[in-house]
Amino acid sequence: MAEKITLKEALELVDFELARGAWRVKHVKGSVYGDVYGDVYGDVWCNVRGNARGDVYGNVCGDACGDVWGNVWGTIKGRKWQFVETAREKLKRLIEEGADKAQLLEAFNQLEES
């Protein structure tokens, strides 16, 4: 038989609110072991171990380990973030864009030099 939690114990972990006719979670006072399907409007005061599949609007105060499959606006350690295109990426992009011979030759030469 599964263990049960009392309503009083549950309310010590989670606060709810009624907004626009629907109940929603307002605060979680503990760890979440599992997935969150929905938006988080507020701050996360802990570590996130898993994937963020959506946009992050706000600051990351800590390390970000993984890939970013989207755009980055802002700074990293106080320095403006800037995309650096490798010679191989540039040549591939120019081929896909149908660039002229002079641009392709220049990109090919840069690839050979690197």
Folded structure, characterized:
This protein has 114 residues and is α+β, with helices and mostly antiparallel strands. Helices cover 27% and strands 15% of the residues. The protein has three helices and four strands, in the order αββββαα. The protein is elongated.
Mean pLDDT: 87
Question: Which structural class best describes the helix and strand composition?
Answer: alpha+beta
Secondary-structure element pattern, one letter each: HEEEEHH
| Strand numbers in spatial order across the main sheet | 1-2
Report the helical percentage.
25-40%
- Report the uncertain regions: none
- The coarse silhouette is elongated
| Rg (CA only) | 24 Å
Q: What's the helix count?
A: 3
How many beta-strand runs? Answer: 4
Measured distance between first and last alpha carbons: 64 Å
Strand content: 5-15%
Tell me the major beta sheet.
2 strands, antiparallel
